[in-house]
Design brief:
The complex is a heterodimer. Chain A is α+β, with helices and mostly antiparallel strands. Chain A is built from 19 helices and 26 strands. In chain A, the strands form six sheets. A seven-stranded mixed β-sheet of chain A has the order 3-5-1-12-9-10-11. In chain A, strands 7-15-14-13-8 form a five-stranded mixed β-sheet, sandwiched between helices. In chain A, strands 16-24-25-26 form a four-stranded mixed β-sheet, sandwiched between helices. Chain B is α+β, with helices and mostly antiparallel strands. Chain B folds into two domains: 76 residues, Ubiquitin-like (UB roll), CATH 3.10.20.30; 73 residues, DNA polymerase, domain 1 (Orthogonal Bundle), CATH 1.10.150.120. Chain B contains five helices and five strands. Chain B has a five-stranded mixed β-sheet with strand order 2-1-5-3-4, sandwiched between helices. The longest helix of chain B has 19 residues. The chains are: A alpha+beta, B alpha+beta. The interface between A and B is large, with 55 and 55 residues. The structure holds FE2/S2 (inorganic) cluster (2 copies). One FE2/S2 (inorganic) cluster (FES) binds next to loops of chain B.
């Protein structure tokens, strides 16, 4: 292939100028004439029957335009996946503290808030359950007694188990029999927030013809559109969603969130209605991640071959299956080749805010467990943890958990790169340690579309329906530029909405550059073919004698014989084929794994238990870095989120009521610049077969490894093993002093028994 | 009851009629159509709302609008000199110091304020100056890099 001109170059984000000058417009920045402000009232009970709601006083307050409750909506349930278990607003019953029960639209926010205070609700409490291990034990109340009536019920065991996923291979029992050493452990991960800096916001308006016009902070405008259509019983064609600039999503903004409230109020009042979440609501209205308990049992031979693995993970999903534990199940193996396994993951209802997605939901939890466990096994066998990983690592031709064959990949390169950069193995002084973790993800797939039109001056306009996440618009523009032989500045990325651009999957699961990027590349190829055809007619040569580069189409053997793209575009206006436009559409791409390795160096203060990360090195097989600066930014941001999850972040949940106790940035501790080491990145480029220019996914993986790498480093430093996140100073100190750190046990027998019912 | 106030915002005298409890942040956004300043928490915890108040970085969500009466305020809309970016803006653009951009106005104003404070621009001091600005996307590495580049650019400018 000729040398690349746009791909692989550090490129300035196409949105950078708007963002440094304050011109970028987020949903909260939308102000429409005559706009009303909306506030939400939420349940104060963990589980209760709604006896009555009295909105008279609220309605009568001057400035209040409309008050709605659950009965104003059609009686339909929706869901994030197959299971439809959730209503947009509670009707007869509330299932957690914080569940929306009413909403107000008023002339200003203060009036709306005052009106909320005037709504009177009478509840009749019902028994509830907060602890997921109790909820799944069969010995507690059922959160939903009508689970079996929910549409999509099918992967559930019943009771509080709303989804069970499994994956099996070989003969696990025989594998354990053949093993020399068997290790059984339980790990626990904490509830966490995605921590996006922009609280969700939405403005809803109704056009004169009755169409809904939604300005949203979302990763998935088409998903918002279809879910909104179902909860409002409207036609999809009557809803337009404009995804505004988004201030961080990380999975939290993949689906319908708060859009249904201003939408209904706008329909009722005929005026635009705006809702902006407070920071507290960013914690309590949108699904976070809840706790996970993971049981692992592994059989190995004395010389370090893993023969069998049983993994059972219990994911607390809260009151609704807002996002499944699905991704977690296959990750019970880690990045290792294990011939016999039995993997189960269970989603359990409890009376809490429902879960949402967050940077590969479930996988990050599994990674903490499996990669800590990997270290434990290596130490037990007296084998260096790095060597143990190398010995068991998956390689090309192995069978992946999902049954497909592992294609060419850079797993070994990432492990070796980190090993070399960190100088492993190395012995550090007491109180200092180093730990590693290896992760596996896949390049996200799903429906993707793109179109490219050639403008009369030779620039091109790129239209896709996908929301820019983490600089993806820039990468897509680079892909278009490279494929058409243009400079990045010659590609205009259209700002779009769901009326304008064709359907595409949401911006999540690391799918944009891989899948959407492939669609853009295909659309560019289509455009190019049309340009060549037109030029061939005019130049009187065969299309295959032509080349498209440097902004023009020329005869390969005689470059001066050429037409530039502007000329061609102008000619096309009156040509037989009409204006030039290239399109592409695809539904999915083959499995392309993404492997990464991460290592942390820590100092542990024996007096306080305080852990400080002093160095962090990571290597990831990204296939091909479309925009290296952007890739590094993704890797750094992901790693720091992982470090926060490892050391300080935790949503505290009241054990009695299930209420979130720390819904503020002063009490939910995300990393600050002062806490963070520089992150060192190594980009490994083993091209994927189908990604654009060989690219693989980037964004999810860097968040996986930090908790396990840091836990392993703590063990290396002071010889204690912490199996519960976060690795807080109190927990580390307790372990150093030999006191009981919180231990969680999963009753694996009970889980086994539950399945056979 | 709403009261009249006046503030010089980005060099322009602006007036507004706002309630006594209104924050400077809400006044800028709701009353003066300056939406570049962001609200991440409204509680003083995130720094997204940082503006320069009489030359010093402050969280505008914690400042009552009337307390800024007669003051000079610089917001993100006033950092560039017309079409020409401030060296700090330029550094953030060129060195990947932003992703979603929601923290960016606040971080840029904190940086501008820090550089104008005359404090020694060491990496350590920079990290502390940005200690009140949360960024969830970048992991800070490229933010700090961008600031260091801006420091260099400003030094060169003043030497010239
Ligand atoms: S909005 Fe002012 S500090 Fe967060
Ligand atoms: S760039 Fe998104 S919060 Fe900083």
């Amino acid at each position: 292939m000729a040398e690349l001109s746009a791909i692989g170059k550090n490129s300035i984000r196409v949105d950078a100028m708007d963002k440094v000058t304050g011109r970028a417009t987020y949903a909260g920045d939308v102000y429409l004439p005559g706009m009303l402000m909306c506030k939400i009232m939420t349940s104060t009970r963990s589980h209760a029957k709604i006896v009555s709601i009295d909105t008279t006083a609220a309605q009568a307050l001057p400035g209040v335009r409309c008050v709605i409750t659950g009965s104003d909506y059609p009686d339909v349930r929706f869901g994030s996946g197959a299971l439809k278990d959730r209503r947009i607003m509670a009707r007869e019953e509330v299932f957690y503290i914080g569940e929306p029960v009413a909403a107000v639209a008023a002339d200003d926010e203060i009036t709306a808030l005052e009106a909320i205070g005037l709504i009177e609700i009478k509840y009749e409490d019902i028994k509830h359950v907060v602890d997921p291990l109790q909820a799944i034990s069969g010995k507690s109340v059922d959160v939903h007694t009508d689970l079996e009536d929910f549409e999509g019920f099918g992967f559930a065991l019943g009771g509080n188990n709303c989804t069970m996923l499994d994956s099996d291979r070989g003969d696990v029992e025989q594998g354990f029999k053949d093993s020399d050493v068997i290790i059984e452990e339980t790990y626990h991960t904490q509830p966490i927030s995605q921590g996006f800096l922009e609280p969700m916001a939405c403005v809803a308006d109704v056009e004169a013809n009755g169409r809904l016009d939604i300005y949203a902070s979302t990763q998935g405008p088409y998903q918002v559109r279809s879910q909104l259509a179902s909860v409002l019983e409207m036609s999809i064609g009557n809803i337009k969603v404009t995804a505004m600039e988004m201030g961080g999503g990380f999975g939290a903004k993949l689906r319908l969130a708060l859009e249904g409230f201003p939408a209904m109020l706008a329909i009722k009042t005929g005026k635009p209605v705006k809702l902006v979440n407070t920071r507290e609501e960013a914690f309590t209205l949108n699904g976070p991640r809840l706790e996970t308990n993971i049981y692992l049992k592994t059989g190995v031979t004395n010389d370090g071959n893993i023969l069998a693995r049983e993994a059972r993970s219990v994911f607390d999903v809260g009151a609704y299956l807002g996002a499944g534990p699905n991704a977690g199940v296959g990750h019970g193996l880690g990045a290792y080749s294990i011939p016999n396994f039995k993997l189960r993951s269970y989603g359990v209802y409890t009376n809490k805010l429902y879960v949402g997605s967050y940077r590969a939901s479930g996988v990050a939890d599994m990674n903490f467990a499996t990669e800590s466990h990997t270290d434990v096994i290596a130490h037990k066998l007296g084998i260096d943890p790095m060597e143990f990983r190398i010995k068991n690592a998956l390689s090309e031709g192995d069978t992946a958990v999902n049954g497909s064959t592992i294609p060419v990949n850079g797993l070994m390169e990432t492990i070796l790169a980190v090993k070399e950069r960190m100088g492993l193995p190395k012995k550090m002084e007491e109180g200092r340690g180093v730990g590693i973790a290896v992760g596996e993800w896949r390049s996200g797939s799903g429906p993707s579309t793109a179109s490219i039109s050639v403008n009369e001056d030779g620039t091109v306009s790129l239209l896709t329906g996908s929301v820019d996440i983490s600089g993806s618009d820039t990468s897509l523009a680079q892909i278009a530029a490279e494929s058409l032989g243009l400079r990045l500045e010659q590609v205009v990325v259209a700002k779009r909405n769901t009326d304008m651009a064709p359907f595409t999957g949401p911006s999540g699961g690391s799918r944009i550059v891989y899948s959407q990027g492939r669609a853009v590349q295909n659309a560019a190829e289509d455009t190019k073919a049309k340009l060549l055809d037109l030029a061939a007619d005019w130049l009187g040569v065969q299309a295959d004698a032509l080349e498209c580069a440097g902004g023009s189409v020329y005869v390969q053997d005689n470059p001066p014989q050429s037409l530039d793209l502007g000329q061609l575009a102008r000619m096309s206006l009156t040509s037989r084929g009409g204006p030039i436009i290239g399109i592409a559409s695809l539904s999915s791409l083959p499995y392309a794994p993404v492997f990464n390795a991460q290592a942390a160096e820590v100092i542990v203060d024996r007096e306080t238990g305080q852990v400080r990360v002093t160095r962090f090195v990571q290597a990831q097989d990204i296939g091909k870095a479309i925009n290296p600066m952007g890739v590094e930014g993704q890797l750094e941001g992901g790693a720091v989120q992982g470090i926060g999850r490892a050391l300080s972040e935790e949503i505290l949940i009241d054990k009695e009521t299930g209420q979130i106790r720390n819904p503020s940035l002063a009490t939910y501790l995300m990393p600050l610049s002062v806490d963070m080491p520089d992150i060192e990145n190594i980009l490994v480029e083993v091209p994927s077969a189908d990604g654009p220019f060989g690219a693989r996914a980037v964004a999810e993986s860097p968040g996986f490894g930090p908790p396990a790498a840091i836990a392993n480093a703590i063990f290396d430093a002071v010889g204690v093993r912490i199996k519960t996140l976060p690795l807080s100073a109190e927990r580390v100190l307790a372990a150093i002093q030999g006191r009981d750190a919180d231990e969680y046990t999963v009753d694996s027998e009970a889980l086994r028994a539950a399945e056979s019912v | 009851m709403k009261k009249q106030l006046q503030i010089t915002v980005n060099g322009e005298l602006r007036q507004a009629l706002v309630e006594p409890y209104y924050s400077l942040l809400d006044t800028l956004r709701d009353e003066m159509q300056l939406t570049g300043t962001k609200k991440g928490c409204d509680e003083g915890d995130c720094g997204a709302c940082t503006v320069l108040l009489n030359g010093k970085p402050v969280c505008s969500c914690l400042v009552l609008a009337h307390a800024a009466h007669d003051a000079e305020v610089i917001t993100i809309e006033g950092v560039a000199n017309g079409q020409e970016l401030h060296p700090v803006q330029k550094a953030f653009v060129e060195h990947g110091g932003l992703q979603c951009g929601y923290c960016t106005p606040g971080i840029i104003l904190s940086t501008v304020g820090f550089l104008e404070s005359g404090e020694e621009p060491s990496e350590e001091n920079i990290k502390h100056a940005l200690g009140g600005n949360l960024c969830r996307c970048t992991g800070y590495t490229k933010v700090i890099e961008s600031v260091l580049v801006a420091v260099k650019a400003t030094n060169q400018e003043s030497e010239e």
